[in-house]
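Trying the structure run again after the queue cleared.
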Amino acid sequence: MDILSNLAMGFGVALSPWTLMLAVIGCFIGTIVGALPGLGPSNGVALLIPISFSMGLDAISALVLLTSVYYGAMYGGRISSILLNIPGDEPAMMTTLDGYPMARQGRAGDALVVSGVASFVGAFLATIGLMLLAPMLSRVAYQFGPAEYFALYLLAFCTLGGVGSNNQAKSALAALIGLGIAMIGLDKTTGMPRFTFGELHLMDGIDFLVAIVGLFAVSEVFFFIESHGKNSAIGVVLDKVRIPWNDLKRSTGAMLRGTGVGFVAGILPGAGASLGSFLAYILEKGVARNPQDFGKGEVRGVAAPEAGNNAAAGGALIPMLTLGVPGSGTTAVLLALLLTLNITPGPLLFTERPEVVWGLIASLLIANVVLLIMNVPMVKVFVKVLTVPSHILLPGVTMVAFVGIYSLTGSSYDMQLMVAFGVLGYICRKLDIPTVPIILGILLGNAMEDNLRRAMVLSDGDWTYLFSSGVSIGLWIAAIIGFMAPLFLRRFLKRPSLPEANED
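Done. Tokens:
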């Protein structure tokens, strides 16, 4: 009954005209961002954070807008995957395996509709899972002390992006870079400056929004200039869009199985939507009676990964809201938003700010319905986005980044710092160093240090206190496994080679 009453309160917030309008706008923008190859949900959300502050949005409005962009980008990533054989983002990579062959067979409209419905099923059921599981996990989080939280943060560093990184040493280096950046500023205990080099602007530390926009959005501009100098062009012509009822009926089981696998992958810190879509595809191919048809335009090969990656997006919100630990790169950006709004994610969030949590959940339920309505009859509108010339797109992205940060901080120094982080992000991408652990280090570094210091004070300097409970020991073991497992499993987690039919 508590869940129903809380959900009723959430719908009271979400159904207000202003909040509903923000959800619709966020869904539309998110779908466009997802459809553009290379941008992805992380960049879209990072770009809009400073804009939301410059608009003066309150906590609920800003969170609804940006999570709608998040969900919309997860929907939109399938469009370029199916039509261009270019994933809109990494989680949509598996959709290319059967989506593009369907398009080459003249069934692009069918693939887009099936993938849109699968995205709806995965995201909608995952939001219901968020509604049911998040309150329970928040009650468990009350048992966490400084030792448990330190181990939890370590788990996040060891696992976030683990399977997505090609080198665990580089992932660890990125986390250390982020932790080092988090140390910049005045020490909270001694009041002494650290790593400021006499620069007054650094006394307050690095604004993580500046770092996020630089590492994600500005670096993407540099990378796009180098890699995509030519204008985009539609690879497959989309004639008409109809609802393929037979295909939807055949792929219902695939959608449900993909949702289950993706949701579990999303809850695990660091697994994220990429692993969710991969496991959903592999599972569906494994249970199919005709696995040889996968990779040649099998509709279930489109439905399963789309349901998986969208379910993972909803599942990743659970550890962020209940424990303050992001489950994916995009939820790390959303965590930065909450911290900027002076909202501390964790178990107390459900009791101190229930209108934020339940308003968000209700808005996500509404946003999924809006996205389904948008992504079936309006899919031709979003396809047109793929023809936007790069000489128009790039200046627009750059302008949004600079105007947003300047409107938020009013400091030219922060704009220079944002460009510096953009260069850092570009260099990291060229060296195949993941940027998400850097962001995670900036976001969680101070909290991790505070909990370590509290643990040492409580134990009078006894480091074994960090292993003093079953929960902390379990988290340490999970962290070690999460860091080491990709070293042995990476050859199983590589993208399957595309069939020859896809290469022409």
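Confidence is low (pLDDT under 50) at residues 231-235, 493-504. Worth checking whether this holds up in the mutant runs.
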